[in-house]
Design goal:
Chain B: It comes from Halobacillus salinus. The complex is a heterodimer of chains A (about 280) and B (about 400). Chain A is built from 13 helices and no strands. Chain A has about 280 residues and is mostly helical. Chain A has one domain (about 10-50, about 85-275): MetI-like fold. The two termini of chain B are about 45 Å apart. The chains are: A mainly alpha (about 280), B alpha/beta (about 400). The interface of A and B includes residues 203 and 281 of A. The complex binds adenosine-5'-triphosphate and magnesium ion.
């Protein structure tokens, strides 16, 4: 293939990333240091500061009430958490939990407004849809590279990569939920003279709540699925134990840590699903 | 000035609507235009005025453009051509804020398919308009409760719309509009989901509301009985055009064209029905026994503005009016003889509907049905129209 020299796409991307890294260094440093410290305090001082038994009791009680005073979720949560503690993976669990919480929160904070914007404008929807597709189909590993370039290694780049990977469902479902509100109800709202904001908060968002929550549930699950990948760039937690197991060819270690992730996933999934109730259903 | 003025209003759905308006100018029909351009004619050059305090009914078959027309009036739909004036102000030239104010203060709409908010309770639905206006919580919930009470749903305020029957949901929609206390109510087939009994009750309620609160009501229906019963004026629509506007009498007596005639032909029972079919049992006072106080009491209880006066043998002596009676009562007058009026509109049991029609048209009091000088029954205006429309004929009246 002499006719056509190779197009230097990789070089362009690299130099663009370098440029961003240099130009926004002060911002990245700030995030890396201050936000990084905050994450650490949250995980190690706050979460790990709670006695294990108390943590398990609180989660059990929450599970009981969230699931409508049934015992299934409570029993599962208590036994699951106890098992993880028993396997001496509690600190890892807390770190993983922290990573998931921060990644999900940031994804939702970014995702919902973008979803609303997308629902309000056809143009925005047209532009954002392919970008969201791209974000979700690009192998998640790829996000590790700019993450490291911006934030070196640790929890912060882990959260960053997870946010990129996990945000799209929230954006999509928020858009979908708002667009699904029937034309008649929008007319009814308009006929009483609502402003755009009133319509959004009194009609569209409440009616879209169920769909948006389904999107958030997916976001959380995607964030959790990034745990192992993020640990490759130094994010602490159960993922690291899995990687260690892989490197040392210790099937047992890897499997137990993997089981821990599954338990956490099921608990979080059931919690968010149970919280997803809509008035008037 | 009319509260609503509609001038040459047209709505054509679809792309290239302007092209389709040219075809309309050339006089092509709705079908031809659909075939040629793919555009649907919703409303075609509608013009009419609605006066303050009037019940203006828009009637027509399904698809004739009634819902489209009413949505043009509060500008939920942008017109293709023509204009709408509310209190003399052109909706089309208003900025967003003024339009919102008009919708908040002047027009409230009741939707054909209810359009209730499923995530809000019945009370919260009824509060919606006031909430949007920023009325504070306690005031708006009181007003919303009152209007729910009025439509008979006082006991359901904490239910969700999904828990109610269709008819009840429709009444929530009505309460939601009433709570706003608008000048104009736009009601798109607002009673269509109600069963006949409640429907009639709601029609009465609406008539009363209009009388006491002087509301202007634009009422849409495809039911002629309903139109005749409640309308001060009726506009008949066909394929987006208004083919006739007139009082119920005018429409029944002089249908403008075949379409209107078809509409009213099965209701023309004027030839078979006579006075005794539609008269009802009269409320009376006895000239020998009763004085002004009793008369006043009875009129107040029945909500009458006049009452007929008979003797023990039901011989008709005349009638008295509420004003005269209360005047007499104040002066401590003991009997009714001094204030008796005798200009009684009288018919006989077998007088035809057509004749009653002419008599009742310019009579302020109900028509008396008299035989051998004895009062047999009375006929109210609404009964004549209802009977012509073929709705419930008061058979109880015959043995009164
Ligand atoms: N959003 C729309 N897009 C395209 N065509 C429409 C739209 N809304 C209404 N139409 C058309 O406009 C015409 C009038 O419809 P409209 O809903 O006003 O009738 P209607 O008199 O209210 O009928 P109904 O008694 O069934 O409610 C119909 O031919 C309908 O197909
Ligand atoms: Mg309609």
């Amino acid at each position: 293939m002499e006719l056509m020299p190779k197009i230097p796409v990789a070089e362009w991307i690299s130099s663009a990333t370098d440029w961003v890294t240099d130009t926004f260094e002060f911002l990245f440093d700030f995030i890396k240091n201050d936000f990084g410290d905050f994450i650490e305090i949250f995980a190690e001082d706050w979460l790990m500061g709670i006695p294990i038994w108390l943590f398990i009791v609180i989660v059990g009680l929450l599970a009981f009430f969230v699931s409508g005073k049934r015992f299934g979720l409570m029993a599962f949560s208590v036994i699951g958490l106890w098992f993880i503690a028993n396997q001496e993976l509690w600190e890892e669990l807390m770190n993983t939990f922290t990573l998931v919480i921060f990644a999900s929160l940031i994804s939702v904070i970014i995702g919902v407004p973008f979803g609303i914007w997308m629902a309000k404008s056809k143009v925005v929807e047209k532009v954002l849809t392919p970008i969201l597709d791209f974000m979700q189909t690009m192998p998640a590993f790829v996000y590790l590279i700019p993450a490291v370039a911006f934030f070196s290694i640790g929890m912060v780049p882990g959260v960053f990569a997870s946010v990129i990977f996990a945000t799209p469902p929230t954006v999509r479902f928020t858009n979908l939920g708002i667009r699904q509100v029937s034309h008649e109800l929008i007319e009814a709202s308009d006929s009483f003279g609502t402003t755009g904001t009133q319509k959004l908060f009194k009609v569209q968002l409440p009616m879209a709540k169920k769909t948006i929550m389904a999107g958030i549930n997916q976001t959380v699950m995607l964030a959790l699925s990034m745990v192992v990948i993020a640990s490759m760039i130094g994010a602490k937690g159960l993922g690291q134990t899995v990687i260690t197991g892989l490197q040392r060819a210790e099937v047992g270690t890897g499997f137990v840590a993997g089981l821990g992730i599954v338990i956490l996933a099921i608990i979080i999934d059931r919690f968010t699903q149970n919280l997803n109730t809509q008035r008037g259903d | 000035m009319p509260i609503i003025q509609v001038k040459d209003l047209s709505k054509i759905f679809g792309k290239n609507a302007k092209k389709a308006t040219q075809y309309l100018d050339q006089g092509l029909s709705k079908e031809e235009i659909l075939e040629k351009t793919g555009n649907t004619v919703g409303v075609n050059r509608a013009s009419f005025d609605v006066e303050e305090g009037e019940i203006f009914v828009i009637m027509g078959l399904s698809g004739s453009g009634k819902s489209t027309l009413v949505r043009l009036i509060n500008r939920l739909i942008e017109p293709t051509e023509g204009s709408v004036y509310i209190d003399g102000k052109d909706l089309a030239t208003m900025d967003k804020k003024s339009l919102r104010d008009v919708r908040r203060e002047k027009l409230s709409m009741v939707f054909q398919r209810f359009a209730l908010f499923p995530h809000r309770t019945v009370l919260e639905n009824a509060e919606f308009g006031l909430e949007v206006q920023g009325v504070d919580k306690s005031e708006r919930s009181q007003k919303a409760k009152d209007s729910l009470e009025m439509v008979g749903l006082g006991g359901y305020i904490n239910q969700f719309p999904g828990q109610l029957s269709g008819g009840m949901q429709q009444r929530v929609g009505l309460a939601r509009a009433l709570a706003n206390d608008p000048e104009v109510l736009l009601m798109d087939e607002a009673f269509s989901a109600l069963d006949p009994l409640i429907r009639k009750e709601m029609q009465d309620e609406l008539l009363e509301l209009q009388e006491t609160m002087k509301k202007t009501i634009l009422f849409i229906t495809h039911d002629l009985d309903e139109a005749l019963r409640i309308g001060d004026r009726i506009a008949l629509m066909k394929d987006g055009r208004i083919v006739q506007i007139g009082t119920p009498e005018e429409i029944l007596v002089n249908p403008a064209n075949d379409y209107v005639e078809k509409f009213v032909e099965d209701v023309d029972r004027s030839k078979v029905l006579s006075a005794e079919h539609i008269m009802k049992r009269p409320e009376t006072v006895d000239v020998e026994k009763h004085g002004p106080r009793t008369a006043l009491e009875r009129m107040r209880k029945e909500g009458l503005s006049t009452i007929y006066v008979t003797d023990a043998k039901r011989n008709l002596h005349g009638y008295v009016t509420a004003d005269d009676v209360s005047e007499a009562a104040k002066k401590e007058v003991k009997d009714l003889k001094g204030i008796l009026r005798t200009d009684i509109p009288k018919v006989e049991k077998d007088t035809s509907m057509q004749e009653i029609f002419d008599i009742i048209h310019d009579s302020p009091v109900p028509v008396a049905v008299v035989e051998d000088g004895k009062l047999q029954g009375i006929i109210v205006r609404g009964a004549v129209i209802a009977a012509l429309a073929g709705s419930e004929v008061n058979l109880n009246g015959t043995n009164a």
